[in-house]
Amino acid sequence: MAQALACAVLLVWFAWAGAGAQPAPAAPPARHVIVFSLDGARADAVQAAVPQALAARGTVSWTAQTIFPSSTLPAHASMLSGVGPAVHRVTFNDWSIGEPYFARTTMFTEVTRAGGRAAAFVAKPKMMIFMPPGSVVSAQHLVYPRFRQADVVEVAARLFGEQRPAVLFVHVADPDDTGHRRGWMSEEYLRVIAAVPALIERLLRAFEDAGVTAQALLIVTSDHGGHGITHGTSRPEDMTIPWMAFGGAARRGVIVDRRIVVFDTAATALAALGVPIPGDWQGRPLLEALQGP
Description:
Layout: H1 2-18, E1 32-38, H2 43-49, H3 52-55, E2 59-65, H4 72-81, H5 85-88, H6 107-113, E3 118-122, E4 138-141, H7 149-163, E5 167-172, H8 174-182, H9 187-194, H10 196-210, E6 216-221, H11 236-239, E7 240-246, E8 254-255, H12 264-273
Parallel strand pairs: 1-5, 1-6, 2-8, 3-4, 3-5
Antiparallel strand pairs: 2-7, 6-7
Helix pairs in contact: 4-12, 7-10, 8-9
């Protein structure tokens, strides 16, 4: 009987592993997670801007993929809710206060349900669609700042120090804004991307200032890339995004060569915090990016 039970357990485990599921860490490596979204940042541009010494301090992938359509609201819906457009149904790219909020579960709702504090600081008012009342303790937005990403990050870093939420979402719009006005990979666009390492360092310093570096995770990614002065297509330039993890809860010197999709971000944030991942999420946590067994 014991042997038969053991075989049955093994068969279930192999079926589960073959389906792509991953076990949760034995203990959560993080108490705080910041998800930093660089709206419109192409992976190849960010890779060229990030010094090797900085990349070696964390886990990186330069081949992660967003969803189609590769636009701001559909992609952020996936980034925050762990599912693709066929499930979350966000294929539009505009929203205003007074219209219905995003109805599906997100990393905000799951952290809040688990008793944690969630906060957000975004650079486009339409991003507030993902923060219905009760899902976050603090949500702030600016009106499409141009070349003000350092100011956005500075305010967000201070907010983290004051509130120390379990999860903080930080969104800057400068790469997307510059791409639409001057062109993706233009001189002006590359200048904006060149500032990304300093933005990463500022958020990591927020962990240090708060004394939580050992149990903190910073995920840096993007919603989409772009080509010419547009995006939204299935072209590689639009679909390929950076994905990086830093902080004491991240493994150092890891280059991920497996497929990563934008909806894996929310699952990784929850896994890092030890918050259960909803069973209907398509996202897989990048456990290889996290400290722990």
